[in-house]
Design goal:
145 residues; alpha/beta; four-stranded mixed beta sheet
């Protein structure tokens, strides 16, 4: 199965809607990337994709990538330098646990959507939404095989 077909069009729309909703309360930028297999440490792969997707190019360096390798059954969350400079250690652990719980039940759409919302809520206190905020990164899900 192709990574693009892992989620139905309706499920993809639900996840994208969650990303859009999450970004309404923060100037942070959230992206979701899905691929089939991960042959390295998932955090390493997420960091690589973070760069490839140009997520480090936000003005406040406040992008977050939620990564899932569906066939390998691994995932990771990566925040940019602006976030990592201000948040405490373990900042992403509850989001990770939320995703792991949903994924273990086969609820990938719900897990990705809940993770996006949780990331948005966590970023609000550090990167509140600004009146002149510009959506710097696409909200759609990116895919690779």
């Amino acid at each position: 199965m192709s990574a693009k077909n892992f989620l139905t069009p309706e499920q993809q729309a639900q996840v994208i809607a969650a990303v859009k909703e999450a970004e309404t309360g923060t100037s942070g930028e959230i992206r979701i990337h899905v691929e089939n297999k991960c042959s390295v440490d998932p955090l390493q792969r997420a960091e690589q994709l973070f760069g490839e997707l140009g997520m480090h190019k936000t003005e406040l360096r406040n992008g977050v990538l939620i990564y899932l390798a569906c066939q390998s059954k691994v995932f990771a969350i990566v925040g940019d330098k602006g976030i990592n400079d201000v948040v405490p250690d373990g900042f992403w652990e509850d989001v990770r646990d939320l995703m792991a719980s949903a994924f273990s039940q086969g609820k990938f759409t719900e897990g990705l959507s809940a993770a996006a919302i949780a990331v948005g809520e966590k970023l609000q206190s550090y990167f509140p939404y600004q009146e002149d905020d510009v959506n710097e990164l696409p909200d759609d899900i990116s895919f690779s095989e």
